[in-house]
Amino acid sequence: MALRLGDIAPDFQASTTIGDIHFHEFLGNSWGILFSHPADFTPVCTTELGRTASLAGEFARRNTKVVAVSVDDLESHKGWIQDINETQKVAVDFPIIADNDKVVANLYDMIHPNASETLTVRSLFIIGPDKKIKLTITYPASTGRNFTEVLRVLDSLQLSANYSVATPADWVPGEDVIVSLAVSTEEAEQKFPKGLTIVKPYLRYTPQPDLS
Ligand code: BEZ
């Protein structure tokens, strides 16, 4: 059965371009992103891994480790990294799992046989420090991911985890957030000293709480 939000992200051991890892141990107390690539030496995947490498500082700032997976072998991955570094002007230093036996692809239901019998789709999972799955996104092989959206969701998830808030449609960092329904207005007045805008008793905004 497909993985659902709130499920524990399956643990595994794997060979990667930075050595063997135990997935949960590698994540430690960090947030994690696990994302699949249909195949090495393909154009869209090359741009995605380049973009991921260029965002290393953004992921680090969010205490988030990224792990890529592709069903090709380690030698292939190592050769491909040279191409990615050359063409995308980056230095890929995050692990890419060699999943030629498709163990990880199957654990995470990344092969959708009606799309391709052999290649993974572009699955992406955000995993919290509690090892629970917080987001799943599935793109087709022909569409490169929107990494700005991935960072935006990470920001939203981390705000929700820390401050009892949610984020409205099309929210971007810096805009007002929504006070969780679990917080009474009386409590919210204490909790959010920057103030509340009460549109309806169930629709209450406050400035993003982690900004000064
Ligand atoms: C790509 O990354 O460009 C790609 C990979 C597999 C199928 C189609 C496109």
Tell me about this structure.
- α4 links the parallel β4 (64-70) and β5 (96-98).
- The chain has 7 helices and 11 strands.
- α2 crosses α4 (74-88).
- The protein folds into 2 domains: 13-145, Glutaredoxin, CATH 3.40.30.10; 164-206, Antioxidant, Horf6, Chain A, domain 2 (2-Layer Sandwich), CATH 3.30.1020.10.
- It has helices at 23-27, 43-54, 56-61, 74-88, 103-107, 147-163, 185-191, and strands at residues 13-16, 19-22, 31-37, 64-70, 96-98, 122-127, 133-139, 165-166, 177-179, 197-200, 203-206.
- The N and C termini lie far apart (44 Å).
- It is elongated and about 60 Å long.
- With 212 residues, the chain is α+β, with helices and mostly antiparallel strands.
- The strands form 3 sheets. The protein has a 5-stranded mixed beta sheet. The chain has a 4-stranded antiparallel beta sheet with strand order 8-9-11-10. Strands 1-2 form a two-stranded antiparallel sheet.
- Benzoic acid is lined by residues 38-39, 42-45, 119, 141-142.
- Residues 38-39, 42-45, 119, 141-142 line the site of benzoic acid.
